[in-house]
Hints:
The chain is an alpha+beta fold and about 375 residues long. It has 3 domains: about 1-30, no CATH class; about 45-230, no CATH class; about 255-360, no CATH class. It has 7 helices and 14 strands. It has helices at about 1-15, 190-195, 210, 225-230, 255-270, 320-325, 345-360, and strands at about 50-55, 60, 65-70, 80-85, 110-120, 125-135, 140-145, 155, 165-175, 180-185, 195-200, 200, 215, 220-225. Strands 3-4-5-6-7-8 form a 6-stranded antiparallel beta sheet, with helices on one face. Strands 1-2 form a two-stranded antiparallel sheet. The longest helix is centred in the N-terminal third of the chain and has 16 residues, at about 1-15. This is Repeat protein (TIGR03806 family). It comes from Chryseobacterium paridis.
Amino acid sequence: MKNIYFLSLLCVFVIFSCKNDDRIEGVAVETPRVNFDINAVPYAKLSTYAFFTGELKNLSPTKKVIPYEPASSLFTDYALKKRFIWMPEGVKATFDADNKTLNFPVGTVLIKSFYYTTVQPNNTTKILETRLMIRKSSGWIFAEYLWNDDQTEANLVTGSDFTSGSSKNLTFKKENNDVMTIDYRIPSESECYACHKLDNKPIPIGVKPQNLNTTYNYGGGVKNQLQKLLDEGYLVSYPANIVSTVNYKDTSKPLEIRIRSYLDINCGHCHQQNARCDYRAIRLNFSQTTNLTNMGVCVVADEPIDASIQRIIAPGNHNKSVMNFRLSSVDESKRMPLLGRTIVHDEGVELLRQWINSLNQNCP
């Protein structure tokens, strides 16, 4: 009888304790969930949201925190970026137009971390900042988190104590092995608003269908990013015929499409109607640059550099083009973009020069 009783207990123990990677037999295991109270955010610490599992610095997303990557990326002093979208249950984004930010519901959080993997002297990885855009009923708000040196936590700095932003001295190695020392700029809330502004309201920049209509490797397989959002219940629908940007680094694509994609993600958010630089002569949204005049070809600049550099784009001659001058400058009073970089994006400038020098029309 004792043996039978022991075996019975053993069977009960096995039924309720043997487990595989995902569950315990007979007992459901709770999936990690994001902690989000729209009336309490932004939280003081990034970890409080539970957007990530395991060590925070690994940026391994919790279920329903969906990674994404626009076809072309905004240049930020060669920083790498990891981007994610999270939405509360029961709501979905809607499609408005190819070139308009997805219409995200209240409670949506866009998460973007900036980091380097070649910090000198030992080629270490260092996350500098994580920026959140949170959709409240009143509109989008910004929340800026700075990472500590131990890479264990990122702390909120948005507010009255961070009105001027800050800088972080950093030495890193580029892909071509050039070693760069920079004062990486961490923006204030007003600096974020300067670029993320349309019709005097804060808006996201990169999450437009034209930028997301590309594939992404989600670990379990490659999928179109809009389809992924649809499958996750984050998007109502999207059309099949989206006119899309490309990766400007992809040399298999036409030069004109590459430069238009580059200017769209780096400059188009300001050079559009009712945005920061709407008073200027050019419009650099991807949907508008099929018209070369909108790109500044043969257009006399609002602020010429000198007598020899007056046209925004002088066909066939990058040395006489204002856009080339401004993208090549680090002078804060002359450079473009005004914010978001402190050094020259050599590859972007080279792409611009190739395109300018390929033009052969005569200006009137």
